[in-house]
What does this fold into?
Amino acid sequence: MDAQSRGQADGIDPADQWVLNPQTGNYELRLDHSTGQPPASRPRGAGRRGGTGQPGARRAGAPRESAENATPAEGTPRSGTARTGAPRAARNGSARTGTSTVTESRSTGTGTSAGTRADVPGQRSRRAGKGQPDSGPAAAGRRKRKAKKSGKKKALVWTGGTLAVLLVAGSIGGYAYYQHLNGNIAKIDIGSAGSGGFKKDQAINILLIGTDKRTGAGNEGYGDAGSVGHADTNLLFHVSKDRTNATVLSIPRDLITDIPDCETKTAEGTEVIPGTSQVRFNTSLGQDGRDPGCTMRTVKEITGLEVDHFMMADFNAVKTLSTAVGGVEVCVAKDVDDPKSHLKLSKGTHTIEGEQALAFVRTRHAFGNESDLSRIETQQQFLSSMIRKIKSGDTLTDPQKLFGLAEAATKALTVDTGIGSIQKLSDLAKELAKVNPKNITFTTLPVVDNPAEVVKATVVVDDTRAKPLFAMMQSDTSLTEVKQQEAAAKSKQAALLKGPKAAPEDVRVDVYNGGGPQGSAQETLAWLQNTEGVPKSTNKGNSPGPDLPRTSLEYAPNQADQARALAAMMGLPAAALKPGTEDAVGLEAMTLTLGADFKGAGIPITGPAKAPEGVQKVEADKQVCAK
It folds into this structure.
């Protein structure tokens, strides 16, 4: 093979090949490349060269080398190692992946040049005549068209590996590789934290946690090697119910917040770790025995969004994932030489991977005001570029990269038990892949310097900007479509509010809680009376009927002016208004029933149509240069 002729085979025997058996429709290990298609019943112990069964010949299932001995560079996909796109891990149990190129002609035994390599077809090749793989210009055309279609998939960084599994699911080695990847996944039981699992017909919230735990080869020098890890990089990935958009909210590690009581699973059973008031957000993980479920609970307290699952990674994830995709393109607006992170780049665009990629996401002295907030923006730019790389045809049509990504992702990530298998990750991947990257927006939780500090080292939530942003996420309003959303909302709101509105002091309304959080009716009453000037409002407690998914306002025809006034105050959508057929008598009040869409007093039910001023954004489909 050409790799061997260049002295780069690294002990890989060119006789090892996987080929399609037209009789069974499965890929099977070919041990003798000098003969034709091997029979399905070939003995496992047959010799590798010439089918002689010589003593000492390696069996097909024996590993070539221990994956533990592989460095990050060695763990990346190698070229020229396999006849088909089937991974070497499927054949010998090791972590190494294969390639998708043919480097030796099956019919003639002559080698092909690098410029004439062709992707080996999958199961569909059985239709190409007498069981022979497709070849020639026509097959190349078919593969080209198929690649173009595959390029439309919108896979995200942690789901790219699961797509690779789907490619081998039908092969004889696919099951072994499937089980191999399942064994790679590290899982944590977070007990009652989270929603209980994502649903296909609901919005999805995934918390991505990057820890500063110094594990893995070469990471000891990055700081406290003995640290149990903190929640240092935190991104809440919110995917809309209709899968048209996603918002990724970064939460600063130095945010001062309250960490709630946290139930964790231990070897002895269940333990409740007491909450802590006014501490850094990053202590929600690792400290006092807190697990990622504690971080999920803390995020819910801050944003009001229920987190479905978590995915956690350390330094090695950046190195291995960036290498698996063949590097991530970044742009810097100036020359960079940061001795602390060891990042050194000239002005312009670069493709980085491994240690250099880790240095890029770690640096806080190269860009912006050298704060953690500037580093967050740099990390968002890096992740946006990685999303673009993974969803590109260069990755999705290259089995070598996909298998490498599958290997790297499953080894790098720790997840909750709810998505702790390849099948469950694949189900999640299919949902996330529906989102077009042009509608994925990264943003950062709006914060201000902590007023309690003289030397500013921490931050606190800026409620004025944060609450509208939370409302936009809760109502699935896309930050990338703000202008269109704003125009549509203004049009609906104009029709809804057309006509006279009663003065606040003339609005009479009974407030019921019919599906909102506990205490919602009393919270709304206090807000109406103290903030909006509606004294003729009453808390009627829980609704006698079943819980409602949506808030509703029932009113009589002669209360329309009151309904318009209340709708304007609360940001009620037109669908929430339920006019009656008979006029109200005397001092009869309207009925406001708060549903499951109620997120808090003063938060518009429809969500703001416009993003708050000053909210930082990075759009996943656009490259910007770090400054």
About this structure: The chain has three domains: 1-150, 188-477, 487-594. The longest helix spans residues 372-391. Confidence is low (pLDDT under 50) at residues 1-18, 29-172.
